[in-house]
Amino acid sequence: MRVEQHDDHFGPETTDEEWIGEIGRRGWIAVTRDARIRYLPLALSVLKVMGDEHGPCHVTPAGRSVFYDLFPKAEADDLVMRSTLLMGLEHWLKQSGLTQTQAAKAPGITQARVSDIKRGKIGQFSLDMLVRLASRAGLKPKVKLAA
């Protein structure tokens, strides 16, 4: 799976109708942190049109990771853990106020890897690598098991 970011394809002036329509035409899946999107009239109307033109549309319920809709459970569990660690590292980078080159020194990685973290390139990192990077950055990664 390849993850694309909105800003790599659409400018800030792009309307919701334009970008949502374009991702539908390309057969892409939109993932957003906006839990309210399913209640917005514009989003609902675009989803209805896209569903009519391109098959069924699905909105993942708030509080559930989209990974569980896209992958088998074991793979989704891995992706959820990796995304949590990646977002934690991204937050650490943002809060540190360091340049990418400066930030690379703490966990002992290259500036290019820091860029991958900032851009959310989840496919570039294994779970064990993200745990190590979080630990080296002074974060305290923990695992919680539930039945």
Structure write-up:
There is one protein chain. The protein has eight helices and no strands. The chain has helices at 6-9, 16-26, 41-54, 67-70, 73-96, 100-105, 111-118, 127-136. The chain has two domains: 6-54, no CATH class; 67-136, lambda repressor-like DNA-binding domains (434 Repressor (Amino-terminal Domain)), CATH 1.10.260. The protein has 147 residues and is mainly α.
Helical stretch tally = 8
Total beta strand runs: 0
What's the level 1 CATH class of the largest domain? Answer: Mainly Alpha
Q: What is the strand content?
A: under 5%
**DSSP helix fraction:** 55-70%
CATH homologous superfamily title of the largest domain: lambda repressor-like DNA-binding domains
Shape summary:
globular
Main sheet summary? none
Q: Compute the separation of the termini in Å.
A: 29 Å
* H/E element order: HHHHHHHH
Q: What CATH architecture of the largest domain would you give? A: Orthogonal Bundle
Q: The CATH topology of the largest domain, please? A: 434 Repressor (Amino-terminal Domain)
**Structure class:** mainly alpha
Number of spatially distinct domains: 2
Rg (C-alpha, Å): 18 Å
User: What quaternary form is this?
Assistant: single chain
Give the rounded overall mean pLDDT: 80
Low-confidence stretches: none
